[in-house]
Amino acid sequence: MGRSSRARRRDPIRHPIPAARTVAATKNSWKPDLTEAGLAGGWPFGDGFLIRPAAVGDLDAIAELVPEAGVKLENEVRTAVEEGTLGAGLRASLRGGKDEFLRHMAETFFAHQGTGRFDQALLHTGLVLVAEHEQHGIVAALIAHPPTHMLSDLAQHAGPQTRSGRDLVLAGAIGMARIRAVVVREQVRRHGVGAAMVRLCRLIYAAAGFFIVYGQMPPRPGLDLFYRSCGLLVQPPGTGLDAWVVTGFNTNIQPGADERIFIWRKP
């Protein structure tokens, strides 16, 4: 269903980079402030970049960027950004630690029980980051969230209204996230922005106690080196991922044709 408000292009809101916090940084030395205030204000990076959560005014720019990664900006993710629920659980984690995160997610799932659909609850642990340049605007985007389709299929198999089905979806929502897209505009590549966004994504999910952050990459030259530089393991071609540590039983995630899985596991 379309919305009339989407017919008009909304220009991204430019966020000035605080001069006191603008320091040169590389992907190796950059140490983001992992607090709720840091998440709200964003993190200056390098020369003129600000990495921050996406706002409503960024959605059209993100929708233009992410097809380069072979995906679309999902309607559910767009709606969660517009309603302010995307990442609400992650904000709770940075505000009050693991206990507040678990309390937030338990209350969220309780509010959605009986509907048979937990996609909105799952997106409380979704993350959409953008990199904004003081001259070029939105130049990069990252989208990550729990593997909603996989978890929904497993829950349907178990019975979405059963306790086992609900527990399975909740376990996935608080235990594993998939990086759906990482895209950087060509004019600002090789500045470490993409690597900084992936690292920040990993740190945010690790702070919430997630066990797995993963994604799938196409066979493009250099991508394996990129993800390894971000602290992720790149698996051999054709190797799947068993998410048993999250779901409680063998859950084999297979890469797409010619794709490879990259993964971070909680130590």
Task: Summarize the SSE layout with pairings.
Blueprint: H1 36-41, E1 43-45, E2 49-53, H2 59-65, H3 75-83, H4 88-112, H5 119-122, E3 127-133, E4 137-145, H6 148-158, H7 163-173, E5 176-184, H8 193-207, E6 212-217, H9 223-229, E7 233-234, E8 241-242, H10 244-247, E9 252-253, E10 260-265
Parallel strand pairs: 5-6
Antiparallel strand pairs: 1-2, 2-3, 3-4, 4-5, 6-10, 7-10, 8-9
Helix pairs in contact: 6-7
Overall structural class, as computed from helix and strand content, comes to alpha+beta
CATH classification class = Alpha Beta
* Overall pLDDT level: 84
User: How many separate helices?
Assistant: 10
Instruction: Please give the order of strands in the largest beta sheet.
Output: 1-2-3-4-5-6-10-7
Radius of gyration: 18 Å
Q: Tell me how many strands there are.
A: 10
At CATH level 3, the topology is Aminopeptidase
Helix content: 25-40%
- How is the biggest beta sheet arranged? 8 strands, mixed
Order of helices and strands: HEEHHHHEEHHEHEHEEHEE
Strand content range: 15-25%
Poorly predicted runs of 5 or more residues: 1-10, 17-27
Number of domains: 1
Overall 3D shape? globular
Q: What is the CA–CA distance across the termini?
A: 43 Å
Based on the structure given, which CATH architecture is correct? 3-Layer(aba) Sandwich
Structural summary, described in words:
The chain has 267 residues and is an alpha+beta fold. The protein has a single domain, classed as 3-Layer(aba) Sandwich (Aminopeptidase), CATH 3.40.630. The chain contains ten helices and ten strands. Strands 1-2-3-4-5-6-10-7 form an eight-stranded mixed beta sheet, sandwiched between helices. The chain has a two-stranded antiparallel sheet with strand order 8-9. The termini are far apart. The relative contact order is 0.13. Mean pLDDT is 84; it is low at 1-10 and 17-27.
